[in-house]
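As a next step, the fold was encoded as C-alpha cells, giving this record:
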Amino acid sequence: MNINDYILEEIKALKLKDTVKDAQSLFKNYPITHFPVIENDKLLGSFAEDDLQTIEIKEDELVSYAHLLNSFFADEKATVLELLKIFADNDTNVIPVLNKERNYIGYYDLRDVLDVFSTSPFMIEESETLIIEKLEEDYSMSEVTQIVESNGGKLLGLYISERNEGAAQITLKIVSEEINEIMHTFRRYDYKVISTHENDIYLEDLKNRSEYLQKYLEM
C-alpha cells in the first residue's frame, strides 16, 4: 500500500489574500485543526483553528496575521511512522505535503494515516506483544532479535516505547508458540519482562513459592 495514494487535495489551500472570514468558514465546515497557506505553490506555513477563531476583524486579510503561521510539513517520501510523529509533535490532524521541488502538492489527514497503520501486517497479524526493559547502555537490537529468533519466534517489529532513569522499555510484536521460552531467555539475559502474559511459567512459579512461604510462616 502506497501512502502517497492518501495525499488529498479536497480542500484548496488558503492564500494570504484570503480573509479571516474565509479561513474561519473553512474551519467551521471541516473537522481540521490546521490548514496550509501557499503562494505560487510554495508552502508558507499553516494556520491553527484556535488562533484564527480568536480574530474579531473578519474582513482582514490573512497576511496581517502571517506571524501566526506554524511551520511543519512532510515530504512525499515520508513513511507512516514519520507522519505519525509529525502529527503528534504539532498536535495537528492535517499535514501539508511537499514534493522534491519543495512545491505544495496536497495534505495528509490523520484519520487516513491511522487507517493505513492499523491495517498493516505489524498491527493485524496474530501475534504476542512483549514489553521488556533493560538499561539503555546494556541492550542491543541485534541481541533482542537473536533471542526471539533463537527460540523459534518471528519478530514482526519493535520500538522503544518508554525511557525512564537510564532504562529503556522495548515493545516487541512476536509470532511464536513458545512465548514462555522467549521470556525465559530474556530474563536469563537480565531483561525485565514488563508485560503480563497468561501461563507465564516464571510468574506462576514465583506465585507458588510465595504461597508456600506464606503457609510455612503461618505454621
In short: The mean pLDDT is 88.
